[in-house]
């Protein structure tokens, strides 16, 4: 058992130390998607925030952007799965934000919040 795990560990170490892997780490195929992860992470963090601040136009633009770049990530050679995963995550995050926007602004959650606010007696 320890020989097998040692063999796997040595293969992983060789792969990580290879010139191909170092070239990959220094390429835009790696750093572009890493930098892009800020967009979906910010959208996911915003799921807990008030939907009154969601921009419908920006949400649609980011959905289109991520859809196009998911296709691009699969079309380039070599295929960039890290970029694809980033934009697939962003697509889901933006769709959730879009749902929250519609729920709040178009389907009445906003009006229900306003009615509750009006029903509260002022304590001035």
Report on the structure:
The chain has seven helices and no strands. The protein is an all-alpha fold. Helix 5 (56-75) runs antiparallel to helix 6. The longest helix is centred in the C-terminal third of the chain and has 25 residues, at 81-105. The model has no long low-confidence stretch (mean pLDDT 85).
Tell me briefly what this model is.
With 124 residues, the protein is mostly helical.
Please tell me the overall pLDDT: 85
Work out the number of β strands: 0
Structural class: mainly alpha
Distance between the termini: 74 Å
Question: Helix and strand layout, with pairings?
Answer:
Layout: H1 2-16, H2 19-25, H3 28-36, H4 38-45, H5 56-75, H6 81-105, H7 109-119
Helix pairs in contact: 3-6, 4-6, 5-6
Main features:
single chain; 124 residues; mainly alpha; 77% helix
